[in-house]
Amino acid sequence: MADEALFLLLHNEMVSGVYKSAEQGEVENGRCITKLENMGFRVGQGLIERFTKDTARFKDELDIMKFICKDFWTTVFKKQIDNLRTNHQGIYVLQDNKFRLLIQLSAGKQYLEHASKANFR
User: Could you give the C-alpha distances from 21 to 17, 30, 35, 75, 110, in angstroms and in order?
Assistant: First the structure.
């Protein structure tokens, strides 16, 4: 429980620090989002490389998505994905109803109209 609280505090401070630099005129708002996305991509890529170094090669996309939903998500977030779907265009939709990094946002109704669902290809 303590490690989760520390992770959430670190996450909040990282996001806050990136946006504070934008307020000081160093970067614009769109660049903040890009910077956060790049940081998340690098961390996710590093974690996946670590977790998959001793596993057999995946046969297809579905095996990759199953690994992400069961093994990866469980290791990182201590729970499995709630729902995995595909649409008719081959896009996978992962649904986590209690994603801990956004749970504080979902408690208030002021962000409801701006919230969007994440789609992964």
Answer: 6, 12, 11, 32, 25
Report yes or no: 9 and 100 within 8 Å, Cβ to Cβ.
no
Distance, CA of 117 to CA of 39 (rounded, Å): 20
The pTM for the full model equals: 0.63
Q: Is it the case that residue 46 has pLDDT exceeding 90?
A: yes
**What value does the mean pLDDT take over residues 37-52?**
90
Q: Token pair of 83, please?
A: 């729902």
Which residues does 117 contact at the CB level (< 8 Å), separation at least 6?
Answer: 93, 95
Determine which helix (DSSP H) or strand (DSSP E) holds 84, and give its type and residue range: strand 83-86
Contact 81, 94 (CB under 8 A): yes
Taking residues 43-62, report their average pLDDT: 90
